[in-house]
Amino acid sequence: MHTTRLLLHGRRAGCVALLALVVSLTLTPARPGSAQTGARGAIPHTAVNPYGANVFLHNEVEAVKVTKTLDLAAGAHLGWIKQDFAWSDIEIDRKGDFTDRRNGAEKSAWDKYDAIVQQAADRGLQIVARVSFAPDWAREAGSPAKNNAPKNYGDLADFIVALLDHYKGRIGYVQVWNEPNLAYEWKAGGQVDPAAYTSMLKTVYPRAKAADPNVTILSAPMAITLENLATAGNLNELDYWDQMYKAGAKDYFDIVAANAYGLDLPPADPPAKDKLNFRRVELLHDVMVANGDSNKAVWFNEYGWNAAPTTLTQAEQLHWRRVDPDTQAQWTVGGIQYGLDHWPWSGVFFIWYLRQVGDIPADKAEYYFRLADPDFTVQPVYKAVRRAAGLYKGPGATAAGAGTPTAPTAAPAGGDVPPPPAATATPAGAGGPAPTAAAATATSAGGTVAPTAVTSAPVADTGGSSPLPLILGGLVLLALLGGGAFLLTRRGRT
Predict the structure, then answer these.
(1) What does the buried/exposed string (b/e) look like for 458-478 if buried means 16 or more CB atoms within 10 Å of the residue's CB?
(2) pLDDT reported for residue 361
(3) Is 323 helix (H, G, I), strand (E, B) or coil?
(4) Shared-domain flag, residues 6 and 85
(5) Segment 3-14, tens digit of pLDDT
(6) Cβ neighbours of residue 304 under 8 Å, at least 6 residues apart?
(7) Domain range holding 4?
(8) Residue 138 and residue 147: Cα distance in Å, rounded?
(9) Does 487 share its domain with 340?
(10) Taking burial as the number of CB atoms within 10 A of a residue's CB, which of 38, 146, 240, 479 is the most buried?
(11) Res 397 pLDDT > 70
């Protein structure tokens, strides 16, 4: 009788454990930002090579450096570059005038961009053209702020049509403006206006599609921030996007552009509304889903981790936080892989940035996002991206050795690019992420956050939704209970 009871209790315990396992799998709540189902490629503009980088080739003085920078991009097996086509640098003096009279003899303002487009095509690199920076004549009279929105959105639409006509069949992706949720990127000294930016899209989108039905329009990416309008007129990207949707923006762009900086947190760090990290973009995707826009891709306009040295000032380190160079390398490729594994709505990750022309000094934290130095010395993150992109076999993959570099300047396997002569001049106005995007970073609800040095560590999927740990835990529990019952049975027999 005693033995029979033990056997019965063992069976009951096993059943209870199995039931607990089933219940836990069924009732486990979804983590925040978990609106992500389906196969990659089912959503338009997701069956793409995810490896890209931002470049500033229009600011180069020496043509050879344009060539060498594009060789770096091709040598890393990138599929994409994001390049400014600065409105103020092309339609300079007046509407419809594309002549550059600024330095000596007149020439077409398109010339340097033509060279960029051709050399990118020679290397199999696709371009996303960022259009922003209204010329003086297109802004409100007396407006000194070069980032301010134009007074007439029709002028911007006309310029984008001119760009599409000029590069017919060669540029198929256009980003309309940049970070309009920051006042100094929209109306310096004023406030941002989601409805007004939506009006810009409503003006540009149908005109661009009429000029080239095949063009793909990307929204402006919003700076990641925790701010509201009371903070220097800025607005966090989640509320900004929600207000855009309420203003009717949904049908006036094809791809959502977003920024994704990891600061000092690993790729798998879970998202939260009061935290800035890589996976914060999941909360943006939730806003899309809530507004009936789940069938659009998200492309990453600026993406990465900063590897500033600890010798920089505390204030500089606070801008973007920091990790060491090896961690930057590991997390940069790890974040892209996280997106491929978890986000069927993700598209291209444009790493911030490939290389800058030398106008960001080494005492500024922004210098340390680079994959390669101004002198073309490649960093560990470049080598990690080159290795990962070279192994990528999905849609849009580049073949090893693709492209046609004009000289042996692309990084040899495991080595650096031989440095060229130093730049002789650097024009002002290089693009860059707004420090405010991460400076809001430094002021959360809890106040200022001190920078944290991070050592290299595996990219753990701590925030994943896989039931495997629960299943394994249940099996272990069943084994322990069964084993205990067996031992008790043996004792009962003796």
Answers:
(1) ebebebbeeeeeeeeebeebb
(2) 97
(3) coil
(4) no
(5) 333 233 334 444
(6) 261, 262, 328, 332, 351, 352, 353, 369, 381
(7) 1-28+469-494
(8) 11
(9) no
(10) 240
(11) yes
